[in-house]
């Protein structure tokens, strides 16, 4: 007996709208117009003979039928995505596409990657360091290291490491006329900024210093460049633990003060559901956890 199926082209629009509870956000995710999402869902409702959304002036809500349907369709699309990954894996068995930020890539991942390649000569890692979250299927990404709050929808995410922040600088700044000995000595040094969520204003407030200008200094869009500036003695950076660990271990950077702040965001390993069935993804995932545990 043939399957009774809805118009399959309508399902991605419905799934995205159900997850976001927004036709506009669904359109942005799918790179189509708001009207295209609206038409797809209207077509689906007509085929089902049931209303899936309650449409308000500025928002939409799932009906009881829509909520039940969304749970099943979302799970089905996850299974289709996993099956697609598994089906295409043999064509690119030796290539692993990894997505992460440029800061994490430059200061943590790349300096360690030679160890992965040495142990897994049949897997070639290709890094994508876009500033935005990659779409696993559309962008061909196998696994990602993301910095955020976790709980990413439609994928598997595993906690990798927490993030702590503290001032770091070149050992040179611990010497000389304005040697860094107490937080108050920061008034004599350039502050280095990157686009991190804990900024110098937050740290100086925690240190009880309200007479140092937190906007003083130089700003870098790239966290990797900010760390390198600190290594070169350009000033004092609020160092993110994962990004400065290698430089601290090698003595290129030091922590002049003890005050450390914990970030509300952490690092997560993220991959499509079912992706660990591929040896290359499973191998890289396991290696990430071993490297992070080793420090």
UniProtKB/TrEMBL annotation:
The keyword Phosphoprotein does not apply. InterPro entries: LysR-type_TF_proteobact-type, LysR_HTH_N, LysR_subst-bd, WH-like_DNA-bd_sf, WH_DNA-bd_sf. It comes from the Bacteria. The keyword DNA-binding applies. CDD domains: PBP2_GcdR_TrpI_HvrB_AmpR_like. Belongs to the LysR transcriptional regulatory family. This is Transcriptional regulator GcvA. NCBIfam families: PRK11139.1. Keywords: DNA-binding, Transcription, Transcription regulation. Gene3D superfamilies: Periplasmic binding protein-like II, Winged helix-like DNA-binding domain superfamily/Winged helix DNA-binding domain. Residues 6-63 form the HTH lysR-type domain. The lineage of its organism: Bacteria, Pseudomonadati, Pseudomonadota, Alphaproteobacteria, Hyphomicrobiales. It comes from Rhizobium mesosinicum.
């Amino acid at each position: 007996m043939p399957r009774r199926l809805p118009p399959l082209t309508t399902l991605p629009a419905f799934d995205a709208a159900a997850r976001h509870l927004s036709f506009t956000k669904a359109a942005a995710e799918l790179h189509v117009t708001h009207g295209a999402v609206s038409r797809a869902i209207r077509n689906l409702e007509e085929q089902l003979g049931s209303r899936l959304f309650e449409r308000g002036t500025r928002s939409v809500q799932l009906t009881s039928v829509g909520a039940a349907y969304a749970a099943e369709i979302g799970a089905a699309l996850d299974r289709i995505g996993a099956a697609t990954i598994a089906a295409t894996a043999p064509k690119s068995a030796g290539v692993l596409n990894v997505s992460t930020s440029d800061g994490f890539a430059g200061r943590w991942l790349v300096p360690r990657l030679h160890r992965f390649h040495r142990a897994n000569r049949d897997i070639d890692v290709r890094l994508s360091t876009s500033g935005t979250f990659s779409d696993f299927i559309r962008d061909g990404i196998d696994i990602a290291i993301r910095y955020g709050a976790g709980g990413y929808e439609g994928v598997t995410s595993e906690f990798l490491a927490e993030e702590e922040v503290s001032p770091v600088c070149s050992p040179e700044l611990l010497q000389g006329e304005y040697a860094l000995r107490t937080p108050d000595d920061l008034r004599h040094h350039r502050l280095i900024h990157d686009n991190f969520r804990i900024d110098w204003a937050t740290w100086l407030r925690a240190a009880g210093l309200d007479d140092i200008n937190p906007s003083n200094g130089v700003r870098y869009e790239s966290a990797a460049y900010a760390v390198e500036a600190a290594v070169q003695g350009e000033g004092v950076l609020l160092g993110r633990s994962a990004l400065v660990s290698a430089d601290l271990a090698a003595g290129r950077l030091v922590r002049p003060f003890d005050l450390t702040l914990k970030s509300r965001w952490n690092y997560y390993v993220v991959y499509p559901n079912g992706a660990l069935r591929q040896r290359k993804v499973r191998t890289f995932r396991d290696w990430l956890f071993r490297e992070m545990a080793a420090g």
